[in-house]
Amino acid sequence: MASTTPTLPNKSKPQRIAIIGGGVSGLSAAWHLHVNSSHDFTVDLFEADSRLGGHAHTLTLDVDEVTCEEYVNGHGNLSANAEEKKEEEDRQSKVDVDVGFMVYNNGNYPNMTAWVSVMQSFQSSRHPRRKHRHVPLHIPRRGRIKSSSHSLAGLFAAPSNLLSPKFHAFLRDLLRFNSHAGEMLLLPPQHPHRMVTIGEYLVREGYGEEFGTYYLIPMMAALWSASVEDVWMFPAVSLVEFMCNHRMLQLFDRPQYQTPAGRSIRYTDKMASILGKNAHTSTPITAMKKIITNNQISYELFTTGSESVGTFDQVVFACHSPQALNILRSTAAEGEEEADPKLLEALQKIEYGDNVVYVHSDPNLMPRRKAAWGSWNCMGKSELMTSHRVGDVKKKKHEAMEGAASGFGGKLTAENGYHEANGDMSHLEGEDGRMRGVYVTYHINRLQNLDTSRDVFVSLNPHTPPKKELTYRRQIMAHPQFTHETHEGRDEIKANFQGKDGLWFCGAYMGYGFHEDGCRHGFEVATAINGVPLPWAKQSTAENGEQLMVLPPPDLARFTFEQNNTFLRKLKHFLTYRIPVAICRALVTRFLKSAIIKGELQLKLNDGTLLSFGDKTPCEGDIHPVTARVFDDWFFVKVATEYDLGLARSYMAGHFLVEPLAKREDYPWTLRSPVASALNETNGVIGDPIGLTRLFLLFVGNRDTGSIGLRSSKQHTYANALQNASGLAVSKIGSFINFLRFKLFMDNSERGGSLKNIHAHYDISNDLFRIFLDKETMMYSSAIYDAMAAPALEVEHPSSGLVFKGSLEEAQWRKLDTLCDRAQLQPGQTLLDIGFGWGGLSIHAAKKYGCHVTGITLSVEQKALAEERVKKEGLCHLITFEVVDYRTFARRPDNRGKFDRVISCEMIEAVGHEHLGEFFWAVEQVLKYHGVLVMEAITTPESRYETYLRSTDFINTIIFPGGICPSLHALVDASYKWSTLTLEHIDNIGLHYAETLAEWRRRFNANEKSVRKMGFDDVFMRVWNYYMTYCEAGFRSQTEHCLILVFSRPGNRALIPLSESRSVTQSKALTKAEVDAWLN
């Protein structure tokens, strides 16, 4: 094999080009390369089916006999087909129908209409299809959906709509959507709000259930042949862009659609005639071999039976992405690996969904009221539409932690997963099939202007199949599913792989999934290969004056916005947005100038302004600026009015993201992933999560300035701009309101307040926590890694951090052993596990020590999963779990002095400052006289604790409602006042917690797809990343601690081992050689 890098095919000699796929993309590419090239090209087109056209599929139906015939084209069969067709035209009962490509319009199909006009293969039908308004016809009280799209008369097919409040609410939402949705298209390209799904958009903008259920979702299902689940995940910006450019965000002056006269067989037959013997039908390409000769690349293609069909200089994949993926996986030159893994990954992201298509004459698959019949008819069950999503999210906002309502209680099941393509299509049909929420029936007579004795319909994945005696044909058709992953995959291909090494990709999946999209992208590939513009594009130029090669789709975003941007809307925007933003921007800018002294914070604004704060000296070991891209200037209002909570809520809302640094080496070494090849977590939804950690470390470095003895008039309070928001007085009002709300509603009392707060966080979803916690113990607390201080760089700073080794699983086992060791747990003892989580500690104590464990919690979901794990381990005879408040449990007479040991692992934070004494009282009641309490606690330094108690923050308001991280002094003081327990031993594992949180974050982001399948949205992705990076920064900077505390009554000899030299002295220092060996 040549040692130099292979080059592209040599275009100076005649070229052989293979096109894989005979659908519209392949045919359009083949036509331009074959007919309009100035270069000597030989084009061979390979199609697996026995006909050309793909979704341009014409059938001949005998409506009297209910039979069906299919055209065959290619390989010179055309004249016989044409002659046979002419004879049959005289028979009134026979009619040609299209079951894939059915309608088009001149404005949105510029290349398609120009192409077929040049070929003179068909003209518009003499009777254009009726105009339609995509509006629903009937809102049933329950059960079934019936919607149509042909006239305003259909809007009131059910007279009860006139008196229905829900119907009126729907109309208001429809008008609001048409008026405001287009604003999304004018947002900056990287704005997080452009990343939301249609489900997230409906929830965020407060649309009612009826609007989604009876209009938007069924309409999308009809247009894209998609299930409700797929529609819910459709990128909102793509839908709005499609509707805007197709003039669907207006009730009047909509495009008039037409149907091809003579059906689509006319243009596919014409193409078969043009290509002649170079159109190879019934020839599936199954494999491809990469050949490198004299530094030139070519490809040998193989069909069924490993039979070679020739060697080609360039290959155009005009097939569906899964077929292209399978072919490329077989590609390898001798001694080389398969195709570029990133290309395979990009193709794998592009999802397709199979649909069972029935051509029939059974009216039972249409709305019962004939007045409600339209061109597109959505049939289904309203309870499986958006009502169970929008409505549930609104309800769950009252019980879930802020930002988690979208997926609260979500689970990973087969229903929200994807079926593997294994040839079994049984999951597509029936009431529990892929389209269980809604299916679509097309009225072909109305769409294609048929006049037949029987109505003809096409239904996709119906809940009940049509009657056999009224069914002409059943077939499987695949359609692209437009998720964010599909967009990422196709964008990756366009940016990095189009034309690379002579490989090209085109298909309807490169656009919206319609015939014009496939046609246009086929032409784009062909013009890129031969450098010749399309005949109808030669007189067209782009805005920059460059020659257009292919006509672009219409872009009506600005036009639509200007139409809807009335004087009253402009006035409202000025008063409620621009004025508050201007005032708050000035306040925040002035505040940051005084608050950020060390390091550098940059704010990039939409107008190109770059605001910089700080002296650019290193801060917390970070020598690079932290750059926040502000997408929405409301960011300044949130920060000015709510301070730190405003910053958090602004990030949650997508108002700003932190930009990544150029390369991995630019990050402080303590923040880098231990694996150089680790997943890059940065994306358009969350920004750079490591950048968030850097932002918080910058704030900490400027809050704790190193001043000695600096106090305000109130004890334990730094007089620091970042600590007190001094200089941002307006934020005091918002902060006070948040604090008042916290004190009034974040109740940690025994009478239900604690239960509610625990439920809001820990009952989010067991499957969510499985995704990022360690796979063996499922401990939701700090691990203890094998760690060593990094070698000293400067005398003043002996070490810049710890170097960690080992997996999260190993580290959690080490932590469990440490807790048991600190408790001096002995075989057969009784143990009370307060806040047992998912049972990791309880199982370990029972399994390793044979202890009898009682666990108490307030989380129903945790208890259910923990009991499953105990049963699986066969430990039911040793472990008992109960949902009960620790105070209620302690009051039971039979629990008095019952337990040898009590362990509470990161539960004390949920108790609340006012109830710390009650916790120690409860432990005193249940602990034997010589018993031991081991507590793992997240603590706040004493110097900030008093200020902390008089304020709210992101953690105790949003993540752990009602939670408080006490100071060590507060814990000892509560123990002294409410019990006879004394502090005996302390370990600080805070830096280990920083690494634990970083690993949780990496695992969480690596499993984003699974998180979203459970229903969680962009807001939650940002909430969880903010939470983990916020906490990581606190522990990483050592301004928040995680302590393992040992309490007992005085004179407890059980703790004598904790006085051994191994516990109270420093181990012998390692030599430099030993340190180097450990680090390497």
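Second entry:
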Amino acid sequence: MSATPVVFHHAAKAISAREFYDAVQATCLPRFPLARRGAQRPVALAISGGVDSMALAYLCSQYIRSKPNVTISDNAVKLFHAYVVDHGMRDGSGQEARDVENCLMKKLGMKATILRLRWTGILKDGQQPSDLPNVETVARELRYRAFGRVLGQVNVVSLFLGHHEDDQYETILMRLATGRHYYGLQGISPATDIPECESIHGAWRSGFVDDQMKENPYWNLRPHRHEWKSVRFSLRDSFDATMLHDGQDGGISEQELRSMDEYKKGTRIPQLAPMEIEDGGVMVYRPLLQFSKDRLIQTCLENDIPWWEDKTNADPTMTMRNAIRHLYKNHQLPVALQKPSILRLGERCRQRIAAEQAEADRLLDHVLIEDFEPAVGTAMIQARQFKFPTVPRGRWSSPERLRRRREHYRRIAAYMMLRILSLTSPKRVLPPVFNLDGHAMGLFPSLADPGDASAKGPPKAFSVEDVHFMPIVNKSPLRWLVARAPITLTGARGEAKPIVNFTRLPFDNRYKKTPSRWKDTGWRPWQLFDQRYWIRIKTRLPFDIMVMMLEEGHMKAFKNALPDDGTRDVFSATLSRYAPKKVRYSLPALYVPVNVTELIAGGPHWPESLVTLVNEAGDAAGRWDSYAKMRAWERDVALKGEKQLLALPTLGFQLPGLENWLQWESSASVFLIPGVAVLLLSVACLTTDMWSSLRYGGQILSGLALTGTSVADAIDIGWYPPARSPINNLSAVVNGKGVYGFIYNSSSTPDDIYGTYNWCNMPHVRPKEYKKLNDSYELAYVEVIHRHHKRTPYSANLFPVEPLPWNCDTVALYHHSSPLPLSNTTVSTPTYWQTTLSELNPFPISPGACQFPQITNPSLHDCWHHGHDLAAAYATLLSHGKTIYRVTNNQITSQVAGMVINGMTLSTTPHPLHIQPAQIDSLEPRYPCPAATSLFSKIKSSPSWKAHLDAARPLFQTLDTITGVSPSDPGFHADLDHYYDNLSARQCHGRELPEGMAQETADAVYRFGQWEYDYVYRSAGPEALAACVASMGVWIAELVGNIRAVVEGRGDGVVYRHNVAHDGSLSRVLGVLQVEEMVWPGMGAEAVFEVYKGEDGWFVRVLFGGRVLRSSSPALGVMDLVEVERLLGYFDGLVGRGGELVVGKCAAVV
């Protein structure tokens, strides 16, 4: 009997750390090879929860542990930050995202943030994402744009994706099935600029110039001082000593200028402003492309890494990729379509394209770019006669061979045409190179087929992809002026004229102020004009600024408005030199909808009649009337006015005096196609006097990083829903039992469960649980907003019959005043209230000696311990600066503050409590805000609110019967607030529930109360966010001002602020922060804003209940060391710089 043959089954092997390291280094090549090693930068990971992304996360976590100082691209890796993408395309995706996030943080020790996609504006009512015929394409665009916005805000430039070898196979197979050309059969690129983000500044090929303006840039290209010294030493013999001496001041003689500049009619044409080279943005890397999915699965299995399967990936009817995957997994494909063959096909296509591009590089001397002016979007090129390389005669010269050679070199010429188009085209997606073969013959007639009549005769102008090629026929050799084609040349296709709008200085910033007192808007966010220019402005003008192409009809008036004949001559000569003929009508121009010449010159803005109306307005009604009439007048003027040309920003010409009203910056965006080296050039076009400051010192841009205004609109300030939980699930509220493990009957929380929600005494920062950061972060400032501690109920919440007395004889409510400064001779005797009940008073509230409300004796002990814990946690900080305490006009906040201060200081020295006038208090808040009141009323009249009241009707009936409350009492039946307040106050003070009431009934009240606070402040939708922003916006602006002052060194030594407020105050703050899980802030609840100075910037950590707050907003995420610019930009986007938007939001019509 023969022996049984040995059969080896080759199982997939897990990816080793060395293999992954080599793959990363091969994929993430330096973008700036000459740059010095700059500051550390985080690297972002796109995580879906699938096996590919979870394997990527695991490998990255091991990568940084084994090689802590390793460099990816140009920067050392600071950390890997995982962004868990929640597409929201199926039920349970939100919970799955949280599970993935939790796994990444706990199992891999990785920073993680959930990135939720917003389908608002894409889906119709009742439509689901899966209903879209192009759902995969739409989801891809949403996903990349979400990454672009977030990463651009936090200066992350490397994004790792988990695409693997099987994805490459599917991609090429899909493209093959759709008949793609070999250019498209290359497959997925291992490294590329982030797609779909061309309009997001800082994400797509931008940010480099701003980075270079920083004191410590991420890309450090600055020569070391020793290198400067070496260069000067090596060049010193190349110049005349007198020249070096004369040039030390940076000057140049008029004679030298005359030899360099062109003249026209005796007028010197000025050089256009110098250009900075722009680049940067987010790069997408795919380090797993060489590994099969089997190896990724094995990597997860061997290292006990869980993953989550998306069931939609198995639905072959949902996307084409799913159909392709189903096809090759369930059917035996021909060998030519199997994975090895398709991957070899992709490799051959990549090699062919690389060879063509290399050949084009060798032949680039056929195109000489003589003069490129990105400021006007023109280039002068010289296209020399194209000659074929010499080959032997004979069969190589057959007609068929010559035809194929011509086709080949047309393709090479098409690559060069792409380079030229990329200089000036407004198209972000240029055509495939094989579509340009015919156009290339316009530049190279020798490539035309024999007998082609179009190649004969003089050269003719032509347009390709909105780029106009104009021959300069009177010069030899032949040159072409290449420029962006004006709309008049391309408008036959119905092309709309590009336009960008910047909003005016808000009306509330100008109301009741003369124009001289108007402050500017701060830098508005960058906007992309005509896909060629990034522009942003800072304005004091009362009308919107429009960026449009220059229109011929405005040229004469603009030229005549220039200050003198010399300036007008220079203007005309500059246009003739740099933007001749119709080229000038593709230049960006700044317009305003009405003529503002008089205003710029120092004249009035408002009509005298309106100014008189404002001055004579006495009461509130009169002020609102004048406010409305002034706004209506401005709208009418803007609609009926004729627009005025203000400036040509890229040429540097503007109306006289405009520099006091408008400033701008612009960058020329030159598109870079794959495989073609093209520069992105940036120019800051401010006023003439600002040029040297920007270019040689950066004084203009210094300090702008912390203004917030320049990034506010770029930060996502949209509403995002809270996490789904039993709290906001009405069915769970109605049918549930207990209160989610919350505590309602004691102020004490055992240490082993500290952090559990305790209504009677909420968890707060205390040393035992407080996590201090490492020494690389210095705590510089803390601000606390703190709900008062437990109290007696409000009088409106007392039941008709309260048999148990509320006795407060052990509490002294001090009320007295003293003149300042305090002295030993004239000082007030401390006095306190002692509540007494008169037998003759026929209107008793309740037996006992208490105010309703007031802080009770047990509560005072809670206050003291709260303050003592805070002092222990922040002892080092408190020893280095001043503290400020603030209260509202409600007496209970002052009662709490006194005990908190003693707990923190152990001192009975009198201490001021800061308080604002009652009518405009921003902390409670009580300033007038009709729009917020209307929004909250709208929320409480919505169908969801009515449904919850209907669901609570049986509970109301039970409560009314037990307590004696009238069923028609509107206060007790508009919501559960009154019942909640009464019952929770009883139980927190160890008092019994009303006779006949079971604990299950009180628990139901608490569940409904939690649902109400979640709905009003979070789940009601954008109206909830708008209401919170409007009603709490002033305090938010004050918080931003405090943080900004510390960061900018203007904090006056204040290191700690403590605000004692109410549940409505804290709930609004949580609503503005879009807390992921909203709860009713219990007694003593606090939100803490900690400001840290780190090695690479300023950061804020936000705590709620002593733990890091988690926000549903992708702009904030897990608020553990959020960049200051991002947080303040988020707040500024909501309330405006200095709260400038709050008055308008409060006055808005709902």
